[in-house]
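2024-03-11 09:14:02 INFO worker-7 job=invfold-0412 stage=load source=structure_tokens
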């Protein structure tokens, strides 16, 4: 009469307990594989959301227009605003690195030349102070708005509002401190930010009133494509450009940037999960190798069990259960470790924690499947031993 699954499970557990170290080492391959699957799946999910949030934080209705050769002028800004009614905000943007000094502290930082509308389209909020006023722009006032990282590096615990900083040895008064924005996925610190009115910065620092980049925000996302076409048509009419010359102007939307970012993170996810499954494959091979060694070591034991009535399917089931227990234990430990390390990653990287229960269930199912698949050959070999030969084996 065949033994019950419960009895076979007890026998399998006893066999595994007899050599705890070997059992742990066998589990290790599965633990690493499942750990990698959970961790990398979680990270890829967080990356997708973080990328979308970082790009969309500037708005899905934002258009970036860049001049490759001939720069834009103040008149271009006026013509765009006048000719395209769907434009809600528009700002030029220049940037260059300069030395920034406050008391005995020196930094080399990129200085942005923008209008006040840059903050409106990006939904930037102030922690203290104020944004640029119209007078700051028209009067070429030497004022600056800074991010939290600049405050910490230059002022430490001082209130920066009203303080004078030297940008390329030219005094600028800090009028605004922005609320914290955080880090980008590429490691760019959004708070490592210093900006001045584009008119002032162009005159005092850049030595030119022209600019190569314009940021535009429409009233809604549905207007973006139409405004992109209108921008190119306006430039073509205004400067009498051929289609070939029009290629010197590049127009892209933040929505396109989101789409590209999502494509990149999808490729990353596929690659990393692929690597994780390779780890699982290696773990499965480890189970098979150690189970084969176990069959060889326990040949005499198998012979005795067969001699006292154990059937072929009992031996097969016992070794399959052993493999299943090993892979299940490895799966549980790997899942717990993966969740813990993924949680720590989200804290350190300041990214959202997105645990997919589907990935947990799939991971555990895969670990069990790996155990059965790679445990079957050793179990089959054990069940097919000749009882007489097995009893003679020493």
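2024-03-11 09:14:09 INFO worker-7 stage=emit residues=394
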């Amino acid at each position: 009469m065949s033994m019950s699954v419960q009895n076979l499970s007890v026998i399998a557990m006893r066999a595994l307990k007899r050599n705890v170290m070997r059992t742990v080492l066998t589990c290790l391959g599965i633990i690493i594989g499942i750990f990698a699957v959970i961790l990398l799946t979680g990270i890829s999910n967080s990356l997708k959301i973080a990328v979308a949030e970082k790009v969309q934080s500037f708005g899905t209705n934002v258009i970036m227009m860049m001049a490759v050769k001939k720069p834009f002028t103040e008149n271009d800004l006026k013509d765009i605003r006048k000719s395209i009614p769907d434009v809600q905000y528009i700002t030029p943007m220049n940037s260059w690195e300069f030395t920034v000094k406050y008391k005995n502290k020196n930094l080399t930082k990129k200085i942005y030349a923008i209008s006040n509308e840059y903050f409106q389209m990006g939904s930037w909020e102030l922690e203290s102070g104020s944004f640029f006023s119209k007078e700051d722009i028209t009067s070429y006032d030497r004022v600056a708005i800074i991010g939290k990282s600049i405050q910490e590096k230059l002022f430490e615990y001082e209130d920066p509002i009203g303080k004078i900083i030297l940008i390329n040895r030219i005094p600028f008064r800090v009028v605004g401190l922005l609320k914290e924005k955080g880090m980008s996925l590429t490691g760019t610190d959004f708070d490592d930010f210093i900006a001045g009115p584009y008119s002032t910065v162009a005159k005092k620092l850049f030595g030119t009133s022209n600019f190569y980049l314009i940021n535009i925000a429409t009233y809604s996302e549905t207007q973006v494509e139409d405004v992109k076409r209108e921008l190119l048509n306006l430039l073509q009419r205004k400067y009498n450009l051929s289609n070939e010359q029009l290629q010197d102007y590049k127009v892209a939307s933040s929505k396109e940037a989101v789409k590209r970012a999502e494509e990149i993170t999808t490729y990353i996810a596929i690659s990393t999960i692929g690597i994780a499954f390779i780890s699982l494959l290696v773990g499965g091979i480890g189970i098979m190798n150690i189970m084969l060694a176990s069959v060889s070591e326990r040949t005499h034991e198998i012979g005795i069990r067969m001699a006292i009535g154990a059937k072929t399917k009992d031996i097969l089931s016992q070794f399959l259960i052993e493999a299943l227990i090993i892979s299940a234990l490895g799966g549980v430990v790997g899942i717990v470790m993966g969740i813990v390390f993924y949680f720590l990653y989200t804290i350190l990287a300041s990214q959202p924690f997105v645990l997919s229960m589907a990935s947990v269930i799939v991971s555990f199912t895969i670990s069990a499947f790996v155990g059965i698949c790679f445990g079957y050959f050793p179990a089959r070999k054990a069940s097919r031993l000749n009882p007489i030969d097995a009893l003679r084996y020493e």
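2024-03-11 09:14:09 INFO worker-7 stage=report msg="The chain has two domains: 5-54+260-392, 70-247."
2024-03-11 09:14:10 INFO worker-7 job finished
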